[in-house]
Specification:
By secondary structure, the chain is α+β, with helices and mostly antiparallel strands. It has helices spanning 57-64, 72-82, 88-100; strands at 9-10, 26-29, 34-38, 43-48, 51-54, 104-107. Helices cover 29% and strands 23% of the residues. The strands form 2 sheets. It has a 3-stranded antiparallel sheet, with helices on one face. A 3-stranded antiparallel sheet has the order 3-4-5, covered by helices on one side.
Length: 109
């Protein structure tokens, strides 16, 4: 069980083996990370100090909804409305990897 209080941000604790991102978690970008459009590359990028991560379309769509208001379940539902099939587990794994890198923070729903 996660000892984090309700409403408190979680950074790396949600990605330990056996613990995943739940549907009620509310992801948001960490304070030192920005989502931006790169005119040169003509795509969304994740800007982190000394790092630029070029995102594919689905990654950019997921992170565009990571505002701390949407739950993971709402993000999956929104993407499901835009596209035919959105694997819930793939969205959770993507977010778990970003939480592990401390680029995304989770708040309990």
């Amino acid at each position: 069980m996660d000892p984090t209080r309700t409403g408190a941000p979680r950074t790396g604790s949600g990605t330990r083996p056996g613990i995943g991102v739940s549907g009620s978690d509310r992801p948001r970008l960490a304070r030192h990370v920005r989502l931006s459009f790169c005119r040169t590359r003509r795509c969304q990028v994740l800007l982190h100090p000394e790092t630029v991560v070029v995102l594919n379309g689905s990654g950019a769509d997921i992170l565009g909804l990571c505002d701390g208001r949407h739950t993971v379940a709402e993000i999956v539902a929104e993407l499901g409305a835009r596209y035919r099939a959105v694997p819930d587990d793939e969205v959770r794994q993507f977010l778990a990897r970003l939480v592990a890198r401390r680029w995304v923070e989770l708040t309990d729903g």
